[in-house]
Amino acid sequence: MPEWGTYLGYLAAIAVFMITPGPDMMFVIANAGRWGARAGIAAALGVAFGEAVHMAAAALGLASLFAANPVLYQGIRYAGAAYLLFLGVQAWRRSKRPLEPGADGTEGPGLTRAFTRGAVTNLLNPKMILFSIAFLPQFVDPAAGGVTGQLLVLGATFVVLQIAVDASLGLLAGRLGGRLLRRPKVGRAVNTVTGAVFCGLGVKLMVG
């Protein structure tokens, strides 16, 4: 466990990080706005699962492999971009068809698929790997011993708080979106916007 002063500083730092809109937050909101609150929460849990994997890898020293291997890093980056572009094109195709029933997450992509999409999107984001390597060690005190344990505590804290923030946003966006999606024109527009968000995230990830 890090010293309390260091830990409080870490909490302040990640609080700023989490309230700043980023790819994961936009992904959760887009899912919730299109398919409902439950799908948004499922996507948030999927994102958190991906973050947990990244944090565990950083704690165990596995993430250094990606930092030392530019080819592997670029491969993951392009795979993540391609996946987001694929989701964006799917959403655009849906915007040309009648609105699917169920804006509460019970239909549409399904909760399991929303979770999987969130997890894959986060796992294929190489910036999370670099974030884990560069950010977490700044709050570790080697003199206190148990470096791996300190990294695991910091990583677990990050994941728990990220769930709270993203799930809350997913719930809010889902409830607002669910009311609007009852109107066919609005539903098709949401599909178009969702596609634009996914494609935009994919392009942003591709160009770095």
TrEMBL record:
It is found in: Cell membrane. The chain crosses the membrane at residues 6-29, 41-65, 71-89, 123-140, 152-174. Keywords: Cell membrane, Membrane, Transmembrane, Transmembrane helix. The keyword Transmembrane helix applies. One of its GO terms (molecular function) is amino acid transmembrane transporter activity. It comes from the Bacteria. GO terms for cellular component: plasma membrane. It is a multi-pass membrane protein. Pfam families: LysE. This is Threonine/homoserine/homoserine lactone efflux protein. It comes from Phytomonospora endophytica.
